[in-house]
Write a structure and sequence with these properties.
The structure is a single chain. By secondary structure, the chain is α+β, with helices and mostly antiparallel strands. It has a single domain, classed as 2,3-Dihydroxybiphenyl 1,2-Dioxygenase, domain 1. It has helices spanning 16-27, 61-69, 83-92, and strands spanning 6-12, 35-37, 42-47, 50-55, 72-80, 103-104, 110-114, 124-128. It has an eight-stranded mixed sheet with strand order 2-3-4-1-5-8-7-6. The longest helix has 12 residues, at 16-27. The radius of gyration is 15 Å and the shape is globular.
Length: 136
């Protein structure tokens, strides 16, 4: 099995506009345009390999995360070449999946999440790069 390189680190924030300047200062880069992923109830921007996630309302996964834990590390995302194949392999290896099938994610990528119960308490996202979507 080839290693999965890190694609990005997801940070839950109350406000992208309030949080972005810090990450732009630290990275020397500029934020990508805001993208809303309605199916997940979130707005996102990328500053380099950091994804800032702002909930569109409190009753979303990121909204509930913020209410429970406050701003901070939300997930680590890894790049994979064949997401359906990796999901099948990880299931066979006993990993608990949140998504048994890929779903739409930021930047036109297909993504899937592994449950934190199987990953030492960290939410893991797998980002498919076999689908030809642009970089996020």
């Amino acid at each position: 099995m080839p290693p999965f390189p890190i694609h990005h680190i997801g940070i839950a924030v109350e406000s992208i506009s309030d949080s972005a300047p810090l990450y732009e200062l630290l990275s020397g880069g500029r934020c990508s345009p805001v993208e809303e992923i309605a199916s997940q109830g979130v707005k996102v921007v990328f500053v380099g390999e950091v994804e800032l996630l702002e909930p569109t309302h409190p009753d979303t996964p990121v909204g509930r995360f913020l209410a429970k834990r406050g701003p901070g590390l939300h997930h680590i995302a890894y790049r994979v070449v064949d997401l359906p194949k990796e999901l099948a392999r990880l299931t066979a290896d006993g990993m608990e999946l949140i998504d048994r099938e890929p779903r739409a994610g930021a930047g036109g990528h297909r993504v899937a999440f592994l449950h934190p119960r199987s990953t030492g308490g960290i939410l893991i996202e797998l980002v498919d790069h076999h689908d030809g979507a642009h970089e996020g």
